[in-house]
Write a structure and sequence with these properties.
The complex is a heterodimer of chains A (115) and B (113).
Chain A lengths: L4 E3 L2 E4 L5 E6 L6 E8 L3 E9 L2 E5 L6 E5 L5 E5 L8 E8 L10 E2 L3 E5 L1
Parallel strand pairs in A: 2-11
Antiparallel strand pairs in A: 1-3, 3-8, 4-5, 4-9, 5-6, 7-8, 9-10, 9-11
Chain B lengths: L2 E4 L3 E5 L4 E3 L1 E4 L5 E7 L5 E7 L5 E3 L5 E5 L4 E6 L8 E8 L6 E3 L3 E6 L1
Parallel strand pairs in B: 2-12
Antiparallel strand pairs in B: 1-4, 3-9, 5-6, 5-10, 7-8, 8-9, 10-11, 10-12
Classes of the chains: A mainly beta (115), B mainly beta (113).
Chain lengths: 115, 113
C-alpha cells in the first residue's frame, strides 16, 4: 500500500458527461501528479500541483482541469467526455517537487469507462 | 528532451531462469531513472531507482539494474524468475525541468511454469 488513495475505483458514464476523480496524497507529501494510462497512448503525464499551485502541465486536454486544495487532496475534473477518454487515471504524490531523484508513489487508479 | 525506450514489448521466461528487461534512455543531463511494476488491475509499485550514487542498483523482490552511461542503458535483471513476477514493467526517466515522469511503453513479462 503506497499511502495514496484514489476514489472512486471505477466510474462508468456517458459521452458528454462530467466526472470528478479524487486523490489523497501520502501524509506529508506536498506534490500531486496526475497520469492517464490508455491502450493507445500508454502512460502519460497530465498535470502536477505543488502545495496548492499548478507546477507543470503535460498532455492535458482543455476539457480537463485539476486543482489541489488546502488539505492537499487533489481533484481531476473531466468534462464533455468522449469515448477516447476511457482510461485508467493515476494519481501520484511526492514529498516535494524540487529534487529530480525524488520518488513518486502511485495510487491504485480510477478506471473510467465512457459509453 | 529526455526519453526512454523499452526494447521489448513482451518477454517470456521459464520459472527459475534469469530475467532481462531492456531499457535505453536519452538525456542531456545525468538522469534519474526508475523501474516500476504494474500487476494486473493494480497500481504502480517502485522496484528501484538510480540517482547517481551507485551504478548497480538493488531493488525489491530480487531485482537489480545497472546504469551504463556508455551504452545509455538501464536494464532490469533478476537471477531467477518467480511466477509472481508476471506483470508489466515500466522504465521511467524523470524530467529534470518539470520533474514529471516520462514512461517507456512497458514490457509485459510472462513466466512459464
Amino acid at each position: 500500500d503506497s499511502g495514496v488513495t484514489q476514489t472512486p475505483k471505477h466510474l462508468i458514464t456517458a459521452t458528454g458527461q462530467r466526472v470528478t476523480l479524487r486523490c489523497s496524497p501520502r501524509s506529508g507529501d506536498l506534490s500531486v501528479y496526475w497520469y492517464q494510462q490508455s491502450l493507445d497512448q500508454g502512460l502519460q503525464f497530465l498535470i502536477q500541483y505543488y502545495n496548492g499551485e499548478e507546477r507543470a502541465k503535460g498532455n492535458i486536454l482543455e476539457r480537463f482541469s485539476a486543482q489541489q486544495f488546502p488539505d492537499l487532496h487533489s481533484e481531476l475534473n473531466l468534462s464533455s467526455l468522449e469515448l477516447g477518454d476511457s482510461a485508467l487515471y493515476f494519481c501520484a504524490s511526492s514529498l516535494r517537487a524540487t529534487r529530480v531523484q525524488e520518488t513518486q508513489y502511485f495510487g491504485p487508479g480510477t478506471r473510467l469507462l465512457v459509453l | 528532451a529526455q526519453s526512454v525506450t523499452q526494447l521489448d514489448s513482451h518477454v517470456s521466461v521459464s520459472e527459475g531462469t534469469p530475467v532481462l528487461l531492456r531499457c535505453n534512455y536519452s538525456s542531456s543531463y545525468s538522469p534519474s531513472l526508475f523501474w516500476y511494476v504494474q500487476h494486473p488491475n493494480k497500481g504502480l509499485q517502485l522496484l528501484l531507482k538510480y540517482t547517481s550514487a551507485a551504478t548497480l542498483v538493488k531493488g525489491i523482490n530480487g531485482f537489480e539494474a545497472e546504469f551504463k552511461k556508455s551504452e545509455t542503458s538501464f536494464h532490469l535483471t533478476k537471477p531467477s524468475a518467480h511466477m509472481s513476477d508476471a506483470a508489466e514493467y515500466f522504465c521511467v526517466v524523470r524530467d529534470s525541468g518539470t520533474y514529471k515522469y516520462i514512461f517507456g511503453t512497458g514490457t509485459r513479462l510472462k513466466v512459464l511454469a
